[in-house]
Amino acid sequence: MSALPPETVQAPDGTVLVLRSCEGYDELEACVRLQIETWGYDDGDVIPRRMFKVAQRVGGQAIGAFDPAGEMAGFAMAIPGMKPGPDAAQPQVPYLHSHMLAVTPRYRNAGIGRRLKLYQRAEAVSRGIRLMEWTFDPLEIKNAHLNIHRLGVIVRSYSPNFYGVSSSRLQGGLPTDRLHAEWWMDSERVKAILSGAPCTPPQTQETIMVPQAIGAWKASAESVGRAQAVQAENRERFLAAFGRGLAVVGFQTDNEGNGIYELARLNLPNPGEL
User: Fold this and answer.
1) In what order do the strands lie in the sheet with 178-184?
2) I need a labelling partner for 205 at 20 to 30 A (CA). Which of 35, 74, 104, 160 fits?
3) Residue ranges covered by each domain of the chain
């Protein structure tokens, strides 16, 4: 990782947190502990400390948010990758896959996750990396709102049961279906969304809804079947829409708290031009 200077952010309770690259094995081990506390993974699913170390070594990221006592409030971890480029002059382009982000219960819903993503972006752009990708559960309304509405990602692909069986208690036993977020970090679209400037997305051609109650349904053995039905229906709709060349370009919540994905046709050879 490049030596991006640490950044401070004030939490709603007044605590000043420092965002910076993790240093030493103790801080990497803190990432592992928070990972287990957040998802409830067993030993077969948890990402070990050595993988965080390798990520830093090979050009990825292991970024932490720390309180004044040096305790971890959150972390973000990314690994590097290569994708096919737009033409023969640029056959391969580098990108980062942001594999994990977690925040302690004290600082959840306080904007710390977004600030960690922004620090990831600043570090990546400082190295000339324009694209960051990650996966997220299509049924998680808060994550979709952050990723699409607050950060400006687009989505053009859907993977059914991407990770296979998961020990995470957050999965509720459902298949690990995932949307693939594309964050074109220095595009005009992203810069406008991050700055709060007006940003007019392409005209919406289709919407896909996630019920507000989906989290409660996933957590209950009596109602998990309802969540499975929503997942199955939305899976087919996403796959069909992406097959027609549509992309997720917006996300809203209605008065009842239901999440609404907005899909449109981009009509651009490179989404980085948005």
Assistant:
1) 7-10, 16-21, 61-66, 72-87, 90-103, 131-136, 178-184, 154-159, 246-253, 259-265, 206-210
2) 160
3) 7-198
Token digits for 214?
């989906």
Statement: the pTM of the whole predicted model exceeds 0.90: yes
Interior/surface letters 73-94, b for 16+ CB within 10 angstroms, e for the rest = bbbbbbbbeeeeeeeeeeeeeb
Provide the token pair at 30: 């803190």
Give the domain 7-198 fold: Aminopeptidase (3.40.630)
Q: Where are the beta strands (DSSP E) in the chain?
A: 7-10, 16-21, 61-66, 72-87, 90-103, 131-136, 154-159, 178-184, 206-210, 246-253, 259-265
Distance CA 145, CA 117 (A): 14
Strands 131-136 and 90-103: parallel
